[in-house]
Amino acid sequence: xxxxxxxxxxxxxxxxxxxxxxxxxxxxxxxxxxxxxxxxxxxxxxxxxxxxxxxxxxxxxxxxxxxxxxxxxxxxxxxxxxxxxxxxxxxxxxxxxxxxxxxxxxxxxxxxxxxxxxxxxxxxxxxxxxxxxxxxxxxxxxxxxxxxxxxxxxxxxxxxxxxxxxxxxxxxxxxxxxxxxxxxxxxxxxxxxxxxxxxxxxxxxxxxxxxxxxxxxxxxxxxxxxxxxxxxxxxxxxxxxxxxxxxxxxxxxxxxxxxxxxxxxxxxxxxxxxxxxxxxxxxxxxxxxxxxxxxxxxxxxxxxxxxxxxxxxxxxxxxxxxxxxxxxxxxxxxxxxxxxxxxxxxxxxxxxxxxxxxxxxxxxxxxxxxxxxxxxxxxxxxxxxxxxxxxxxxxxxxxxxxxxxxxxxxxxxxxxxxxxxxxxxxxxxxxxxxxxxxxxxxxxxxxxxxxxxxxxxxxxxxxxxxxxxxxxx
Length: 473
Prior knowledge:
Elements: H1 32-41, H2 46-54, H3 79-90, H4 95-103, H5 113-127, H6 133-149, H7 155-167, H8 175-187, H9 202-211, H10 220-229, H11 237-249, H12 255-267, H13 274-286, H14 296-307, H15 312-324, H16 330-336, H17 339-346, H18 351-368, H19 393-398, E1 402-406, H20 420-431, E2 436-440, H21 441-445, H22 449-462
Parallel strand pairs: 1-2
Helix pairs in contact: 3-5, 4-6, 5-7, 6-8, 7-8, 9-10, 9-11, 11-12, 11-13, 12-13, 13-15, 15-18
């Protein structure tokens, strides 16, 4: 009895000339003659042809198990027929023959056979004239076979079929492409639902905003609104310290927020120690802002009197902030310049930084507090604040000016108010007898070349009655 055409038995016909096949465990490589024939007779675009020829073929059993129960190479009762079907698909001479091999052997078809059929289809379309209407029907039949069986494909087979369908020119809205794309989406891992955001009150919102590493993404109005909505018991020292550090770090001279910190300091005076107070006072000195709160200074003086001997470094930090505001309490100065305090800090790890701060305070006392009669920092404990040539009488006679370069970061943000440390430096240089010639960054940035810069400096010196060059000193 003769076997119907297209039905697969235990033996496969001999491959035609130029066709390629691979047995179990063998690597696939097209013969030179077949590649040359396809290249010379190709009607497809260069991009499609390169994709079809260079895309590696799907070897049997490499796509994982399917619902038909594939067996590894060399094992299982269907290894021979399954392998033979792949060879027949690779040697098919028309789209119709491809469809017949797939439709008439349902028990031997595996998921990896469909990419093989699509690849052979691309080779046939690239090496033959445009297919007649009957072949178009075969293309539709092949598409329906893949659509019907693609739910059993693994994700790799779906990706390969989708890639080949696009190379073959199937539009994005074609049923084959849509079915493969839908199956691809089904294989994607599900995204976990976003965590529920807790409802935050005013103080909690303020703390969450200030704890965020991207401080500048939270505008000042957001901070002000969160502060206004917070209840008094929600404004903890931790929240207010975060707010003070935020303002100081980003040079935000925001009066409403600074006044809120000053009011908190006065109200919570009894519960605050000097280590917390130094952080709350920091933005006032740095931003050169003296609050309107009338009890601000009396409150700090009481805290200094109470805590000065407990935390020496915190005490000196508070005095440095007040020094920038030109508000140095005499009683606290007498304490930090006393021999007992100086001997106490000499053996501590932060002795050097405390000596430097005390030297700055001693300079401020000499220049700004002529009525002070208390103890002063001993000469052997002093740390130089200005370079030695600037503080000699000969230097003051030789140099009627000091050029002060004013960079953007020397000012509060969006303001022409100098930071407290810069204002203190300029104030002390002026009290030492120097004329200060500020050079704003906007003017310096507008100068082009050395010639323009010299002309700019000459004009600046003339405003002080000085001349450029050796004759002018």
